[in-house]
Amino acid sequence: MLVGFIITKGVQVKNKYCIGGTSTPMALTENCKQYIAQYLGIVKNSDFCFSDTIAVTVKYWDTTDVSHMGSTLDAVVTIVKFEGYSYEDRVAETGRIDAAKLTSENGGVALTDDDITWIYDNSDGVDKYCYSPDATPTPIPSTPSPTPTPTLAPSPTPTQTPSPPPVYTPAPMHTPTPSPISSPSPTPTFVDSDGDGVLDRYDYAPYDPNVQTKGDIKPETTPTPQPHGFEVLFVIVGLLLVAYLIKRRVVK
Questions:
Q1: Smallest Cα–Cα separation from 109: which of 27, 25, 24?
Q2: What is the number of alpha carbons within 13 Å of residue 44 lying toward its C-beta?
Q3: Could you tell me whether strands 86-89 and 67-70 are parallel, antiparallel, or unpaired per DSSP bridges?
Q4: What CA–CA distance (Å, rounded) separates 131 from 173?
Q5: Whole-angstrom Cα distance, residue 155 to residue 153?
Q6: CA distance 121 to 149
Q7: Which residue from 37, 40, 127 is spatially nearest to 78, judged by alpha carbons?
Q8: How far apart are CA 22 and CA 113, in angstroms?
């Protein structure tokens, strides 16, 4: 925090921060107020606010690159009046904030003594400056217009092209190959098949050794049937003869 005594409003602000000379009209824009509250202030109930004048919550650097902890007012005066600086991200130390940056955020107009006095007057109590970042408006979904269903034109019925009738190629006729006619083997002239000493061409029965001529074949004789009575008579006579002989033997 800058060395100085406890100040009140008005002239004492100028004495603490060496603000002198002719007073210029306040030119602090709303955009610049919001920028200072966001990057050189505090967060209170999700709002960005100026810190109390006696707070030590804002980190800033002087012209010799020495860092300090103080209030929003301390940081703004050091940047505007003493060529100090700070950062939008004070942890990563990126996004440098210097007098030129505040002038740019103030619409191209440098901050005046009256601007600094206004920051002091709106840093404590019920007059503390805060702003709520604009919430991203939730888009109201519009009822989409129904997409007209396209009327499909009837597709033309395709004309079927008749298939040409199949052409059958007849199978070649099979011509059987004639089997060669075998000529009978000539019978040998001097052959005796039954081994009876007579050549086959002179043998009446070339496969029967007992027959050489036709006269060798004797017809079978058929026996003359005898009458059945003769056999019976013969048996009876035999029996009588046997009985006679037995009786004669017994009588002697």
A1: 27
A2: 15
A3: unpaired
A4: 109
A5: 6
A6: 66
A7: 40
A8: 9
pLDDT below 70 — which residues of the chain?
A: 1-25, 135-159, 161-162, 165-176, 178-189, 212, 214, 219-230, 252
pTM of the shown model: 0.49
Residue type, position 203, single letter: D
**Residue 198, pLDDT score:** 74
d(CA 115, CA 100): 15
Q: What's residue 247's pLDDT?
A: 79
Q: Which residue matches tokens 């017809």?
A: 219
Q: Minimal CA–CA distance to 105: which of 42, 43, 34?
A: 34
DSSP code of residue 58: E
Answer for the pair 105, 35: CB distance below 8 angstroms, yes or no: yes
DSSP assigned state of 85: B
Give the amino acid at 2: L
Residue at 193: amino acid letter: S
- What angle, 0 to 180 degrees and rounded to 10, lies between the N-to-C axes of helices 113-121 and 72-82? 170
Instruction: Find where tokens 């004309």 sit.
Output: 159
The pair of structure tokens assigned to 143 is 């009822």
CA atoms within 13 A on the CB side of 221: 3
Distances (CA, A) of 194 to 115, 199, 210, 221: 161, 9, 9, 27
Strands 94-97 and 42-44: unpaired
Q: Roughly what angle, to the nearest 10 degrees, separates helices 72-82 and 30-39?
A: 110
Residue 94 gets which letter from DSSP? E
Q: How far apart are CA 21 and CA 239, in angstroms?
A: 201
Q: Are 28 and 34 in contact (CB under 8 A)?
A: no
Quote the CA–CA distance of 113 and 231 in Å, as a whole number.
Answer: 187
Q: Which helix (H) or strand (E) holds 61?
A: strand 58-61
